[in-house]
Amino acid sequence: MSRPKFTRQDSLAATLQQAFLKFDKKKTGKMDIHDLFRALRMLGLNPTEEHIIAIRRDLDDGSGIVHFDDFCSVVRRLMFQAEHEHAADDLRVAFHTFDRERSGFIRAEEFKKVMTTLGYRMSAQEVDDILNMVDVTGDGMINYEEFIDVLAA
């Protein structure tokens, strides 16, 4: 008999269920909205005040109750946003490596050389496609803040 395979999603679902149950004392599939923020912090998510306001606006119908599906949706959205922010930070660090003058720009030709020869190698066409999106002025220079914004969109 083969062992079942568990994915990262299975593990996340189990973790979310355990966290939710800690605050769903009556086992009704509901928690108080104030407990939602405690549960998020328990999961290592620290929503900003802006996130808290948006979550309240989206979830609270006046009852102050959060259902399990809504809880899962909030956690997944915050995790996605956190991953995006970390990816942007990693890109910023990588670009600083090539921006020797700290001008906020790197040469498109240097970017192309690095992307086609080091680490995960992209094809010249893939790099050209990226450059067409990010070198909006056509001057051969890439503004890395704009580059990050384009990739994050």
What radius of gyration results from the CA coordinates? 22 Å
Mean pLDDT comes to 82
Morphology call: elongated
Please bin the fraction of helical residues: 55-70%
Termini separation = 45 Å
What class would the helix/strand composition place it in?
mainly alpha
Order of helices and strands: HEHHEHEHHEH
Overview of this protein structure:
- With 153 residues, the chain is mainly α.
- It has helices at 8-23, 33-42, 49-59, 68-98, 108-117, 124-134, 144-152, and strands at 30-32, 65-67, 105-107, 141-143.
- The chain has a two-stranded antiparallel ribbon. Strands 3-4 form a two-stranded antiparallel sheet.
- Helix 1 crosses helix 2 and helix 5 (108-117) runs antiparallel to helix 6.
- The chain starts with 7 loop residues before the first helix and ends with a helix.
- The model is unreliable at 1-6 (pLDDT under 50).
Give me some keywords for this one.
single chain, 153 residues, mainly alpha, two-stranded antiparallel ribbon, two-stranded antiparallel sheet, elongated, disordered N terminus
Summarize the structure.
The chain is 64% helix and 8% strand. With 153 residues, it is mainly alpha-helical.
Topology (SSEs and partners):
Blueprint lengths: L7 H16 L6 E3 H10 L6 H11 L5 E3 H31 L6 E3 H10 L6 H11 L6 E3 H9 L1
Antiparallel strand pairs: 1-2, 3-4
Helix pairs in contact: 1-2, 1-4, 4-7, 5-6
